[in-house]
Amino acid sequence: MPGPFFAVLVQGPSMAPTLRHGDALLVRRGSTARPGDVVVVRFRGEPGLFVKRARRPADGGWWVEGDNEFVSDDSRRYGPAEVIGRVLLRYWPRPRLV
């Protein structure tokens, strides 16, 4: 069974300016999301994990959006997402709470 924490790397500009491509994040698996939290999600039928901002609970999951609306594939395209965990901090390149 996996531990409660895992790491992810941000890929792409969808969370700019909050997060940038290459930022390394520490995530707490199974954390309860609240509106405004940065979360790691999975969209039904889409491969991989995504880093997005939780907006509100929605049917079957959470409505999530990227901070950079012009280049973000998020709930506006895929619908509600399953929250895998909540981002606690960015530890690379400069540590800071998210």
- Radius of gyration equals 12 Å
At CATH level 2, the architecture is Ribbon
CATH superfamily: Umud Fragment, subunit A
Number of strands: 7
Separation, N- and C-terminal Cα atoms:
26 Å
Q: Structural class given helices, strands, pairing?
A: mainly beta
Enter the CATH topology name.
Answer: Umud Fragment, subunit A
The number of helices is: 1
Strand content: over 45%
Mean pLDDT score, rounded? 95
**Could you state the order of secondary-structure elements as H and E?**
EEEEEHEE
Helix content: under 10%
Low-pLDDT stretches are: none
**Text of the CATH class:** Mainly Beta
The structural domain count equals 1
The shape, in one word, is globular
| Major sheet size, sense and barrel closure | 7 strands, antiparallel
Q: How would you describe this structure to a colleague?
A:
The protein is mostly beta strands. The chain has one domain: Umud Fragment, subunit A. The protein has 1 helix and 7 strands; from the N terminus they run E-E-E-E-E-H-E-E. Strands 1, 2, 3, 4, 5, 6 and 7 form a 7-stranded antiparallel sheet that branches. A hairpin with a 6-residue loop joins strand 3 and strand 4.
